[in-house]
């Protein structure tokens, strides 16, 4: 297993002073990009169930993995679509 | 999974406007997984702070359709609904930012690369997508966004 410190994405900012690189990660619960700025004082979280960092927002304090949220969104859509089909069938019959 | 790329631009105004949306197909919904994007400004570089933001949307708005480029010529055409230069802004999901508001010097180019597997994605639901926006109080140049994704 790759340690979390090595599982970071990368942000590169290039301007006329050259290129600066920062580490970044994606919140395990809301899929938000977090750019690591050493010394910023911002507190982030770490989910012991997902074994991945979180953004530190209160809403991401409880473990609801992003994948589960996506499936819930897709499931709602499927449910409503099915309901439309069912009600359309009832109207037809 | 096949890899695709698209570029979008838009003119800066005093409110957030969208340069690029990458969203689910309008008939066969699918997820798109962004693994890289680039933010930059067109025309003359000078010192100004451009405010950037990336937000999820539930409707893609009205835009100029973009035909995504294939990273491998042997792949099928992209399924994603991609639009640039929006005339009607996407319906943004409140507080669903994938890139929180940040200021970037207009001389700078910003590139984000995901760690493999730790990608940005959206639900496979028609209308869902990712929108890249920017604003500036006075500048009216074009700002440019390039996105790379798997689908």
Q: For this entry, what is the oligomeric state of its chains?
A: heterodimer
Which residue ranges of chain A are poorly predicted, with pLDDT under 50 across at least 5 consecutive positions? none
User: Which sequence of SSEs, written as H and E, runs from N to C of chain B?
Assistant: EEEEEEEEEEEE
Share in helix of chain B: under 10%
Proportion of residues in extended strands of chain B: over 45%
List keywords for this structure.
heterodimer; A: 93 residues; alpha+beta; three-stranded antiparallel β-sheet; two-stranded antiparallel ribbon; 1 helix; 27% strand; B: 151 residues; mainly beta; six-stranded antiparallel β-sheet; 12 strands; 58% strand; globular
How are the elements arranged and paired?
The complex is a heterodimer of chains A (93) and B (151).
Chain A (H helix, E strand, L loop, with lengths): L8 E7 L2 E9 L6 E3 L9 E3 L4 E3 L11 H27 L1
Antiparallel strand pairs in A: 1-2, 2-3, 4-5
Chain B lengths: L2 E9 L5 E7 L9 E9 L7 E11 L2 E4 L3 E2 L10 E8 L2 E15 L3 E5 L6 E2 L7 E7 L6 E9 L1
Antiparallel strand pairs in B: 1-6, 1-12, 2-7, 2-11, 3-9, 3-10, 3-12, 4-8, 4-11, 5-7
Describe the overall structure.
With 93 residues, chain A is an alpha+beta fold. Chain A has one domain. Chain A contains 1 helix and 5 strands. Chain A has one helix at residues 66-92, and strands at 9-15, 18-26, 33-35, 45-47, 52-54. Chain A is elongated, with a radius of gyration of 20 Å. Chain A starts with 8 loop residues before the first strand and ends with a helix. The mean pLDDT of chain A is 84. With 151 residues, chain B is mainly β. Chain B has one domain (21-150). In chain B, 0% of the residues lie in helices and 58% in strands. Chain B has no helices and 12 strands. In chain B, strands 1, 3, 6, 9, 10 and 12 form a 6-stranded antiparallel beta sheet that branches. Chain B is globular. The N and C termini of chain B lie close together (6 Å). The model of chain B has no long low-confidence stretch (mean pLDDT 94). The chains are: A alpha+beta (93), B mainly beta (151). Chain A binds chain B through residues 7-16, 24-26, 30-33, 35, 70, 73-74, 77, and chain B through 29, 31, 45, 54, 96-100, 102, 104-105, 107-115, 118-126, 128.
């Amino acid at each position: 297993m790759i340690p979390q410190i090595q599982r970071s994405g990368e942000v590169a900012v290039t301007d006329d002073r050259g290129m600066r690189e920062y580490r970044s990660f994606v919140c395990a619960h809301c899929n938000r990009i977090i750019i690591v700025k050493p010394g910023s004082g911002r507190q982030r979280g770490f989910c012991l169930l997902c074994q991945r960092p979180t953004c530190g927002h209160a809403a991401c304090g409880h473990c609801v993995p992003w994948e589960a949220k996506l499936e819930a969104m897709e499931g709602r859509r499927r449910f409503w679509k099915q309901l439309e089909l069912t009600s359309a069938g009832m109207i037809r019959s | 999974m096949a890899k695709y790329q698209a570029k979008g631009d838009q003119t800066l105004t005093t409110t957030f406007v969208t340069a690029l949306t990458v969203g689910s197909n309008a008939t066969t919904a699918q997820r798109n997984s962004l693994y890289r994007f680039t933010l930059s400004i067109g025309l003359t570089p000078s010192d100004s702070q451009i405010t950037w933001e990336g937000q999820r949307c539930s409707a893609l708005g009205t835009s100029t359709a973009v035909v995504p480029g294939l990273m491998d010529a042997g792949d099928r055409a992209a399924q994603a609904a991609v639009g640039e230069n929006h005339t009607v802004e996407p319906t943004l999901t409140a507080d669903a930012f994938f890139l929180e508001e940040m200021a970037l010097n207009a001389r700078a180019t910003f590139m984000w690369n995901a760690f493999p597997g730790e990608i940005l994605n959206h639900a496979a639901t028609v209308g869902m997508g990712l929108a890249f926006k920017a604003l500036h109080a006075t500048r009216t140049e074009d700002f440019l966004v390039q996105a790379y994704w798997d689908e």
